[in-house]
């Protein structure tokens, strides 16, 4: 026992810590650390051999060190469920404390794969050097047992990590379009796109704003961009030329609002811009609680104008036999009381209940729907962002057979957000246009134009009136929403 303790202190803790000091000069490219420390270990082991301080027992003690590290790695992965930001990783950091300096510097370079496998690579490499110099007599049975234990631990770790939510589910914030604000290519709805897909009137607009300075600035949710872009195209004179010219200016690149008057920064940022007075009108769902608090702190109040009708929907993979859920069943699923599909008439599979980011319109609607029933902790994924390290975000629906997600109907169907999914009926009612207009569908809701009560611009009120006019309702309905009319 004393020999193992001495080896742990002097050959593991002290030696690897001193050798790892080299990582200071290889911090920018931590992969070099493995190469340099490998050379140092080779020299160090050779010197010990020449001084007759390298014994056969060192081989078995080194095996113990390797299994110790592999066990700590596996335990950390099991307890953390694969999330690299979990505090349970302190178990592995404690076991690999001789490499703490390297852990810290390598984390700054965001190369976490090197962080976790480097100690094992180094200790296994050192084991091979010890074997080469000492040629220990080891039974095949002993070698096989230790080797199988190591392989089992490493395989378990690999499996847990690559099948954990942190790796398995795609993220909701790695947006590809609109300067990182959108999951959807909205370019077909640019007012200056000559091949745009915007709804157009067959007759001149009954309301026109001719001066650029009199045009209310617009922003909104992804699914609403085709609506307010079409409204601006119909009402704002020469808006196509105004916006196209703006794309050639430095302000367009610096502001990242995807437009000068017809802007887009999504629900989360759009509400903040409305609160700060950067835009006059926001199109989308009602704000989240945090957005309401943000408005209260800024001393402003929202004014909501329903301009269309919409459905909040839940959807599953087409292979899922479940086609209907009750409102109470959905609340129980998202609260965590119902955890398997066979509890609601489906297969014996665990339910993966995906949520949306907190400040998104659909998450705000989900919170309203849940009422007094709390939402369980959402599925998370992790990504590395700049020099800030590991960031955890709410995961998005990713099309698995046992998953369920939610959004607004137009976002799913009009913008083709998901493939191979089916929309569930709620309480036995499908979200058809007729059921939405008649409010028969229990999660019928409104598309809102949101303004500040303090905004007294004349054209803001006139544009809201136009949205409720026959022409405005025509554009809204032809885009894919339901008009306010019950006919």
UniProtKB/TrEMBL annotation:
Gene3D superfamilies tied to this protein = Periplasmic binding protein-like II
Membrane topology, from the record? Lipid-anchor
Q: Which UniProt keywords apply?
A: Lipoprotein, Membrane, Palmitate, Phosphate transport, Signal, Transmembrane, Transmembrane helix, Transport
- Which ranges of the sequence are coiled-coil? none
**Where is the protein localized?**
Cell membrane
- Domain named PBP is located at 249-470
- A Pfam family in this protein? PBP_like_2
Spans traversing the lipid bilayer: 12-39, 59-79, 91-108, 114-134, 143-161
Q: How does it assemble?
A: The complex is composed of two ATP-binding proteins (PstB), two transmembrane proteins (PstC and PstA) and a solute-binding protein (PstS).
Function noted in UniProt: Part of the ABC transporter complex PstSACB involved in phosphate import.
The similarity annotation says: Belongs to the PstS family.
Specify the protein name.
Substrate-binding domain-containing protein
Q: Which organism is it from?
A: Allocoprobacillus halotolerans
């Amino acid at each position: 026992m004393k020999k193992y303790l001495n080896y742990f202190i002097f050959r593991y803790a002290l030696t690897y810590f001193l050798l790892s000091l080299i990582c200071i000069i290889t911090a920018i490219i931590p992969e070099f650390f493995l190469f340099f420390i490998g050379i140092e270990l080779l020299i160090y082991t050779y010197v010990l051999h020449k001084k007759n301080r390298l014994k056969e027992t060192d081989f078995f003690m080194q095996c113990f060190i390797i299994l110790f590290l592999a066990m700590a790695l596996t335990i950390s992965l099991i307890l953390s469920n694969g999330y690299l930001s979990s505090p349970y990783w302190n178990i592995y950091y404690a076991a690999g404390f001789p490499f703490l300096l390297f852990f810290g510097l390598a984390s700054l370079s965001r190369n976490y794969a090197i962080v976790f496998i480097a100690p094992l690579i180094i200790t296994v490499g050192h084991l091979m050097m010890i074997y080469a110099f000492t040629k220990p007599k080891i039974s095949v049975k002993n070698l096989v047992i230790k080797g199988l234990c190591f392989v089992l631990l490493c395989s378990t770790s690999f499996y847990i990590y690559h099948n954990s939510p942190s790796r398995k589910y795609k993220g909701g914030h790695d947006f590809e379009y609109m300067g990182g604000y959108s999951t959807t290519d909205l370019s077909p709805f640019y007012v200056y796109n000559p091949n745009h897909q915007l709804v157009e009137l067959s007759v001149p607009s009954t309301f026109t704003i001719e001066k650029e300075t009199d045009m209310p600035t617009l922003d909104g949710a992804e699914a609403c961009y085709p609506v307010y872009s079409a409204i601006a195209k119909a009402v704002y004179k020469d808006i196509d030329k105004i916006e196209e010219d703006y794309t050639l200016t430095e302000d367009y690149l610096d502001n990242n609002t995807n437009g000068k008057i017809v802007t887009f920064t999504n629900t989360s940022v759009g509400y903040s811009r409305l609160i700060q007075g950067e835009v006059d009108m926001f199109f989308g769902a009602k704000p989240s609680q945090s957005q309401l608090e943000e408005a209260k702190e800024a001393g402003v109040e929202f004014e909501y104008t329903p301009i269309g009708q919409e459905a909040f929907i839940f959807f599953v993979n087409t292979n899922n036999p479940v086609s209907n859920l009750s409102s109470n069943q959905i609340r129980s699923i998202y609260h965590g009381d119902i955890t398997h599909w066979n509890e609601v008439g489906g297969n014996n599979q665990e339910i993966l209940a995906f949520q949306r980011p907190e400040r998104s319109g659909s998450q705000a609607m989900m919170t309203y729907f849940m009422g007094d029933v709390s939402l369980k902790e959402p599925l998370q994924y992790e990504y590395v962002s700049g020099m800030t390290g590991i960031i955890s975000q709410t995961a998005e629906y990713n099309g698995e057979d046992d998953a369920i997600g939610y959004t607004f109907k137009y976002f799913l169907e009009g913008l083709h957000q998901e493939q191979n999914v089916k929309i569930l009926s709620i309480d036995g009612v499908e979200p058809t246009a007729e059921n939405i207009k008649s409010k028969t569908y229990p999660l019928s809701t409104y598309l809102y134009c949101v303004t500040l009560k303090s905004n007294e611009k004349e054209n803001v009120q006139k544009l809201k009136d136009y949205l409720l006019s026959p022409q405005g309702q025509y554009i809204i309905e032809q885009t894919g929403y339901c008009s306010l009319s019950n006919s």
